[in-house]
Amino acid sequence: MRRKSLVRVLLVLAGLMALGTVPARAAESLVLTCEVCTEVIVTGKGLPANQDVKVSLVDVANGQEVHSPVSATTDADGAFVKKVNVDLTKHPSLESSVWTDQGGTLVVAAHTRFDSPCKPKSASLPLTGSHTPLLLGIGAALLAAGALLLGGTRLRPRHLAR
What we know:
CATH topology: Immunoglobulin-like
Structural class: alpha+beta
CATH architecture: Sandwich
Strand order of the largest sheet: 4-3-6-7
Shape: elongated
Largest sheet: 4 strands, antiparallel
CATH superfamily: Immunoglobulins
Number of strands: 7
Order of helices and strands: HEEEEEEEHH
Radius of gyration: 25 Å
């Protein structure tokens, strides 16, 4: 009986690990792009329709706002496009949030980072991404070790198992 429950637990853990491989998608999205090095184009999607939102732009290097919060109004589909004048040679890496004030409660709808192609050659932004592939690999190795241990108990002769 214990082996069957152990097999079930291993199957549940494998299923949970498989769920971790599917990328999560937020309903809201915020994208920063640029065509010239003096202007950032902010595009938001999946937000509440016909609502006033604010967009903040912060320099990643020093944490200071590079522009006061910009107001935008979403269309009937909950999308907006707003151009903001920012010197991307001075602020090559930006962090942005779109938010709204609903009944006195601050609601952050989306958040993103932007690494400008306009940055000087000496500037660099270290990788701050997740370690998902490494963690999934460790999880798979642990599941494989558990399966081998389970298989090893089945191969043991009955007279030695007592």
